[in-house]
Amino acid sequence: MNNITTLFSSEDKPILIASGFIVVILLIGTAYTLATQGTMPLLTANYLMLQLQSGAFLGIAAAGIMVVILLGHIDLSIPWTMTAAAMMATTVGSELAIPTGIAVGLAVGVINGLGVGYLRVPSMIFTLGLDSAMRGLMVAHTGGYAPADQATPLMRYLASGDFLGIPMSLCVWTAVSVIIFLILRKTTFGKSIYATGNKEAAAYLSGIRTRRVILGAFVVSGVCAALAGVLLAGYSAKAYQGMGNPFLLPAIAAVVLGGTHILGGKGRYVGTLVGVILIVLLNSVLSIMQMPEAGRQIIYGTVIICMLLVYGRGQKISS
Amino acid sequence: MPELKKNMRLLISQNIGFTAATIILVVLWLLYNFLHPRGFSSAVLIQNTNESVAIVFVAIAQTLPVLLGGLDLSVGAVMTLANCVASVLVSGTPFQIILGMMITLLTGTAFGLLNGLVVVYGRIQPIIATLATGSIAIGLALFIRPQPGGDVDGDLGWALTNDLYELVATYGWWDADAGWFAPISWFPVPLLIILVISFGIWIPFKRTITGRTVYAIGSSESAAFMSGLPIDRAKLAAFTLAGFFAACGGLYLAIQTSSGNADISQAGSYTLNSIAAVVLGGTSLLGGIGGAIGSLVGALLLRLLAFYFRILSIDPLLQPLIEGVVLLVAVSLGALRTLQTKNRLRLFR
């Protein structure tokens, strides 16, 4: 008995349950296609690869926001960081496109980090304000229309090309995942993030420069969002207004479904991966079932609530 | 008399954010009217308040969960749901109209209660719980109204979006030209609705034990628990009231536009603007400090900023930029105090 409890620590539970739910989603989807068409496309490698390819954008954005959530903060500037990075990248063009996009993310991260870490403005409101300011800048930059500039060939290749049969966007997502995983697991910065997220005062007193940790985390988040935006522009061949809007809430949901505590200090990167795959597959199966938008939203919300009721419950206040 | 003066000073120093926001609002409003070609007229006031009602109610709705130290990401969605329910039900005979309005408000209130139940008994963090329930609310709204549209009673729309004169004249309650009525007949109905509902519900609620407990939980939930305060009841009440206020916003929006629209991005921007309004009104996102009247002022400030774009003929494309910068500057100015703190440990909650 003891072995089992040590085998599955409390952090593994969400990951296991979420993985189980992924299987359930696939089974339900397959049952549906078997009943209606007599085939089971959901279990083919091709289908799964396609889902992972289109899920890469959400995955990369979620990887970044997870680092911020681990601190107990949140980054609401993801949508327009993505859009701004994509628009700047396509505007500049040539070889400089991708570095320019990443630089936008870096700048956003630094501003967010200064506001939240040094000025101590609640992250919720500071990132919201910056998001709005960037939306204004981009709308002013483009005149409110989709810019005519096209994504560069490299951006398109990274988003929709493939390497030895594996989609490139999946490769990028994997690379980002490995980096974030290593940062969180193996570096002082990663350990400082967990410490600061648990109790900032204690982390500060143990000599961690918590303000720099916060700054660093927001930079990671900004860069990830920018990368996701640049790739997304490559995927759809150009940047357009509001392209990042549908990513914020699913990214937060993916991180939380993966067992990361929304108040910080607890969570594993593998969980975020599982959470992203869960959300991507859920969306995909619902669209295969031709579920109208209304039903999708309701199922989406219900799934999040039910899964959190199983493993995301807080402690009862008792002292 | 000195006693009163001392109390006043204490009251102001304890509500410094709210006081500053109110003063700025009054100054900006006066300036706006001087600049406006038809400034200080009832028509301008009616138009401005009409366009502010929905966001004011959504901001007040957001205040309660924020006072708890949480956040309600579903207020915009609940407002949209109420908006769609109203666009179906608020028409027909006077009895049907009143029934439709009650059902609309009840829908929002019930949804708020559902939020509260998930947060209290499900013990899920409010921000993530309401993210999920908000999605459910939008789904329901889309079921009710897949396409924008609706059929809201036209007389009601006219009467509630004008001055008191038109309200009385539309329904013929009494002679609208009566001499005693003239001094107040210019008063905008939307402003009256905002003031009556917000003050009429908020001030009494704040003074109940439940209302005080909402503040106590925001300051320290453990301390509130150890003092034997009704924590669960206060949380349920806060989320339920939030649902009610959001429904008020949705109902008014339906009456004003005589239609319903289950627009996901509109719901999202109402939610985000409500957070901004709450903060501008002097309520702390950490909980325990602030109030609904502050949020009312904050929401009006946000709207007033937008009105300036019209009269100064600034390119409307710049509007989100300036709104964002104003928000950033406002919160950063408020945070400058932290740079003077000698003991840095105080900065960490």
From TrEMBL, chain A:
<feature type="transmembrane region" description="Helical">
    <location>
        <begin position="125"/>
        <end position="143"/>
    </location>
</feature>
<keyword id="KW-0997">Cell inner membrane</keyword>
<feature type="transmembrane region" description="Helical">
    <location>
        <begin position="56"/>
        <end position="76"/>
    </location>
</feature>
<feature type="transmembrane region" description="Helical">
    <location>
        <begin position="297"/>
        <end position="314"/>
    </location>
</feature>
<feature type="transmembrane region" description="Helical">
    <location>
        <begin position="213"/>
        <end position="235"/>
    </location>
</feature>
<feature type="transmembrane region" description="Helical">
    <location>
        <begin position="96"/>
        <end position="118"/>
    </location>
</feature>
<keyword id="KW-0813">Transport</keyword>
<feature type="transmembrane region" description="Helical">
    <location>
        <begin position="15"/>
        <end position="35"/>
    </location>
</feature>
<keyword id="KW-1003">Cell membrane</keyword>
<feature type="transmembrane region" description="Helical">
    <location>
        <begin position="163"/>
        <end position="184"/>
    </location>
</feature>
<keyword id="KW-1133">Transmembrane helix</keyword>
<feature type="transmembrane region" description="Helical">
    <location>
        <begin position="270"/>
        <end position="291"/>
    </location>
</feature>
<keyword id="KW-0472">Membrane</keyword>
<keyword id="KW-0812">Transmembrane</keyword>
<feature type="transmembrane region" description="Helical">
    <location>
        <begin position="247"/>
        <end position="263"/>
    </location>
</feature>
<protein>
    <submittedName>
        <fullName>ABC transporter permease</fullName>
    </submittedName>
</protein>
<dbReference type="Pfam" id="PF02653">
    <property type="entry name" value="BPD_transp_2"/>
</dbReference>
<dbReference type="InterPro" id="IPR001851">
    <property type="entry name" value="ABC_transp_permease"/>
</dbReference>
Automatic annotation (TrEMBL), chain B:
<feature type="transmembrane region" description="Helical">
    <location>
        <begin position="52"/>
        <end position="85"/>
    </location>
</feature>
<dbReference type="InterPro" id="IPR001851">
    <property type="entry name" value="ABC_transp_permease"/>
</dbReference>
<feature type="transmembrane region" description="Helical">
    <location>
        <begin position="12"/>
        <end position="32"/>
    </location>
</feature>
<dbReference type="Pfam" id="PF02653">
    <property type="entry name" value="BPD_transp_2"/>
</dbReference>
<protein>
    <submittedName>
        <fullName>Sugar ABC transporter permease</fullName>
    </submittedName>
</protein>
<feature type="transmembrane region" description="Helical">
    <location>
        <begin position="97"/>
        <end position="121"/>
    </location>
</feature>
<keyword id="KW-0812">Transmembrane</keyword>
<keyword id="KW-1003">Cell membrane</keyword>
<feature type="transmembrane region" description="Helical">
    <location>
        <begin position="236"/>
        <end position="255"/>
    </location>
</feature>
<keyword id="KW-1133">Transmembrane helix</keyword>
<feature type="transmembrane region" description="Helical">
    <location>
        <begin position="127"/>
        <end position="144"/>
    </location>
</feature>
<feature type="transmembrane region" description="Helical">
    <location>
        <begin position="317"/>
        <end position="339"/>
    </location>
</feature>
<keyword id="KW-0472">Membrane</keyword>
<feature type="transmembrane region" description="Helical">
    <location>
        <begin position="267"/>
        <end position="286"/>
    </location>
</feature>
<feature type="transmembrane region" description="Helical">
    <location>
        <begin position="180"/>
        <end position="203"/>
    </location>
</feature>
